[in-house]
Amino acid sequence: MLLVCAAVYLAATVWPSIGAQGADVLRGVVGDSAVAWLEGVVFQAQDTLLKVEFSMGAEPEAPWVVGSAAATPPSTITFGLPPFVLHTPTVKIVQEKTTTAGSPSPTATPIRWPPLSVPAMGVLEGEGEWTPYIITNQRETVAYRTFLQPDPDRPYAIAAIVAADLDKTRLHYVLGFEEPFFADEVDVERTGIIPKADKQPGILLAAFNGGFLTRHGLFGVMVDGKILVAMVEGLGTLAIHPDGRVRIGVWGGDITSLEGISTIRQNGPILIHDGKINPRTFEDSLESWGASLSGDMTTWRSAVGVSGDGRTLYYAAGWSLNMPALARALKTAGAYSAIQLDINHFWVLFTRFVFEPDGPNAIPLLDEMKENVDRYLYASSRDYFYLASKIP
User: Fold this and answer.
1) For residue range 358-387, what is the model confidence (pLDDT) as tens digits?
2) Over 133-164, what HEC string results?
3) 80, 153, 266, 362: which has the highest count of C-beta atoms within 10 A?
4) What is d(CA 44, CA 320) in angstroms, rounded to the nearest whole number?
């Protein structure tokens, strides 16, 4: 058993794709519970190693540079894990903010776009500052990104967050050619490919991962008004309307009818509801979060949320995150409602697209999202979402 754990640990840290696909094979042999236990052992070992590294003087590194760079280039250590910076002396220049006569006074009118900076939750420079991330052909910034350190017990845990303007972009959902799985024959196309009409310069902007395997909770799915997997009462539900509106709520509570909805994806309990973190987020439960991994376990996690007015879409992802940390990051960033998406290193992926003369190039949100980063440009076995510009 020690050899098996060591092999899985090596695969999960050095070759995430092999680890992820190997876990799926093992589930078919020994069952979900056994694989969840094995993953728990591996992820606990990873977390313990990171704590040891941090206690020995390693410091977390921001996933990208914001503002003034450190005076001394850092030396990094990775061990097949997210990068950490060895203690090196740095010099920071801090400018004190002053108020001058004639400066605009604070206003009670909320500024929606670009999003206002959010409170830092850690100590990294640039944390909570939104920087331009996705820019259209019309030179409009339709998405910003920031990062947070949402876990006070794990300063090395990083959550990267993207905020997209739903007034200028539209969210789409693509079925994988294998997942979500539905036993009944339904007349629906499932190529796993972005439609050609949207896979064009000036239209296709970004894509990100979908949710859990169907067998981990029989989560409801509806595409083009056709029910593929029945809705489950009480689960967190993302709904897309024909006019492009996106809602996230509880099925049977906030969302009670399929009328006027074109697409639905459920994925476990709701994470943030009416601006509050769901208390179940703090439960160490396998059943609550997809019968895959307990909410208290740290691993790569992802989630999607919307603002209270439904005009801003949020995506969050990062490493060494448990459920409370993921929820805190999204809520702090501005999400009023949210659900968790897929977990584990290989499956968590957000890419933006830059079109070159020979076609689109996929650029990951985080450098650690380095395996098969162009998977959403081809036929995908699993479901995913993509963002397209409303104004080509």
Assistant:
1) 999 999 999 999 999 999 999 999 999 999
2) EEECCCCCEEEEEEEECCCCCCCCCEEEEEEE
3) 266
4) 10
Greater confidence (304 vs 45) lies with: 304
Look at residue 71 and tell me whether its pLDDT is greater than 70.
no
To which H or E segment does residue 386 belong? strand 384-389
| pLDDT tens column, 91-134 | 232 333 333 344 344 444 557 898 999 999 999 999 999 999 99
Separation of CA 342 from chain center: 8
In a 3-state reduction of DSSP, which class is residue 325? helix
What tokens does 377 get? Answer: 């440009």
Which residues on neighbouring strands pair with residue 386, listed in sequence order?
172, 207
**Spatial separation of the C-alpha atoms in residues 269 and 285, rounded to whole Å:** 11
Q: Are 239 and 304 in contact (CB under 8 A)?
A: no
Please give, one letter per residue, the 3-state secondary structure of 202-230. Answer: CCEEEEEECCCCHHHCCCCEEECCEEEEC
Instruction: Supply the pLDDT for residue 56.
Output: 85
Query: What gap in Å lies between CA 314 and CA 322, rounded to an integer?
Result: 18
Beta bridge partners of 86: 58
φ/ψ of residue 25, rounded to 5: -65, -45
Percent of the chain with pLDDT over 70: 75
Residue type (1 letter), 337: S
Q: Is 294 helix (H, G, I), strand (E, B) or coil?
A: coil
Phi/psi zone of residue 359: left (φ > 0), alpha (ψ -120 to 50 degrees), beta?
Answer: left
**pTM confidence score:** 0.84
Assigned token pair, 163: 């905020």
**Which residue type does 91 have?**
V
Q: Cα(343)–Cα(332) distance, rounded to whole angstroms?
A: 21
For the beta carbon of residue 102, count every other beta carbon within 10 angstroms: 5
Residue count of the chain, please give it.
392
pLDDT at 35: 53
Cβ-in-10-Å burial (0-12, 13-18, 19+) of 17 comes to middle
What's the rounded Cα separation, in Å, for the pair 285 and 297? 10
Question: What gap in Å lies between CA 225 and CA 187, rounded to an integer?
Answer: 11
